[in-house]
Amino acid sequence: SGLSQEAGSVEQLSLHCAEGSLEWLYPTGALRLRLAPRLPPTSAAVKGGSPPHVTACIKPTGTFRGAQLYLEREGVLELLLPEAPRPRARCFSWLPQEKVALFLQATPHPDISRRIAAFRYELRGDWLARPALPAASPSAEGACRPCNDTEILMAICTSDFGESSPRGSERGEWPRKWHWDASLGWPGLIRTPLRCGVKPGPGTFLFTGWLHFGEAWLSCAPRYRDFQRIYEGAQRTHQNPCEFPVD
């Protein structure tokens, strides 16, 4: 709460969790949020490597008021969220040796009692191995192109889901929602932007992707027979980035 802060003060906080939320009541002064996540061993466990980047995504609540959020990178500030932003996520990445923080600065108002600056965040390693997260850069070139063989293999290793091979069915909404067969694996929805023109069709697919603010977003989705061919070919040449059960 800003009521416990002195006017013009900057309070220092550290965000260690891989995901969470922050709610700043009655903003006054500023908060400096150091990003120091304890990341789970996802892609870092692939062939003994280490993730080249750490990625953060910030999603404001629809009632975000009373402050502006900046990315502080090596002492330089970049505006991420203005006051009263659209409730969509902003994502950015950095190298482990870079010094980054979030700087949440209160905007002056005569009445601060009705203002709350609140957002959710996610911090993860190597999220940008694939083009861009859907919310990170909606107009990014290449976001809708098919995955090549290398990207398919990496998607299998870094995906938040993809342990089974469901048959996809599509509903005409934005974003498109792909239903998993509950008998084959985790039941739920997988989303992909409508502009990518994904269409339903017969066959068995291996869906991969990320869980992003509680929603599953599609990355690579090869036909299962194509995945088997790519995986077995990489196995013969010892170029698999990780092991995956193929039946």
UniProtKB/TrEMBL annotation:
Signal sequence bounds: none
Protein name listed in UniProt: METRN protein
Keywords: Disulfide bond, Secreted, Signal
Subcellular location: Secreted
Family of this protein: Belongs to the meteorin family.
Main location: secreted
GO molecular function, one term: hormone activity
Disulfide bond listed as a keyword: yes
Single Gene Ontology BP annotation: glial cell differentiation
GO CC annotation terms, alphabetical: extracellular space
